[in-house]
Amino acid sequence: MTIRICGLALAAFAAWGLGAASAQENAIEPGLALGQFLEDAARNHPRLEEARAELDAAEARGRANSRPLYNPEFEGEFSDSEDPANDTRAIGLSKAFDITNKRATRAKGARSAVDAASFTFEAEKRALFADLLTALADYQASKRLSDLAAERADVAREFSSIADRRAEAGDLSKSERLAAQLSFSQAIAEQTTARSEFSEARQALTALVGEVMPAWPVLPDPPAAAPPLDMTLVRRLPELRAAEARADALSAEIRFAKKARIPDPTIGAAYGREGDADFAGVRLSVPIPVFASGQAEVDEARAERVAAEQAIRNQLRNAEARLVEASGRFAVAAGTWRAWMRDGSDVLREQRRVLDQLWRSGDITAVEYLVQLDQTYSAERAGIELQGSLWRAWIDWLDASGTLNEWKATL
Question: Which of 55, 68, 292, 408 has the highest local Cβ count within 10 Å?
């Protein structure tokens, strides 16, 4: 009977190993590469469509701001009286002239705004890729944990059933029978929790992708170590370049506000007939900036520029701190994972071999075997969680360094 119990437990471990491999294979759709999956998921995604619409709006504003500021004005006058000598008919054409070239200044600011919207679109796309990869990592880790919990529950259920039969036959003490039942109850509770967490991870991934896929791509193993820390990567981040472009646009706003303080003259010409006499004339008008001098608009633009510069400084600090910490977290996770792969797996295999020998020789009881068997499951679970942490740390480093697209191109 003892040999049978041991065989069931070890068979369950073997089944878990095959089940994990099968789950990995079933998670791969033939011909579906990870890079293609990311591009397909990003295509027509609401987050990117929103950013693309904002880019289109900025480009439309740029086209509008590159046009002349003033349109010509057509004027007509007609008056009819009882005395034909007093009748008046006249037409005129006038136009205000941009003497300080405000059009060029406004167009330059619009180009900077378009650059800012373009960089924002790039940043949003990279952030979406990072969220997709993180959700995929959580999905894969939670799926493996759910499969492991199911296998453990099956072993505990069979062990509890055998314990009940042996206890009824008088071959097992009451305490050992209760321990088997308790282990089964704990395994069922852990399986329920693992299924719930897997459902949440699947929901998050499906919500990002926008559809339920029959299979998901598998993340490749991260590199053994991150590249050397290069702080110049931060300066190339599209979100930082977008902030700098917005600051440039505000600088153009300052120049435009200064030029707007200088009134633009309006010149017009008119031709008509008054009674029996023809007449022609030229008109010149210049606004007098008495009540609205435009100084408040200049002060506003300057304050917004200062705020933009401080925002860049703050964003740069945050980006540098994030890159440093992301690099450190990945280094720790990668080192721990290498140690686990070097020592953890071998320890588990050795522990199972020793448990089998001790059980066969009768040196440990069923309860002792069960407790130590649960410890190996806990160790397996820790290994899966460690690999999930490694994936998330690597994705976070790719996002923080702005090299996610380069990495995706190598897939």
Answer: 55
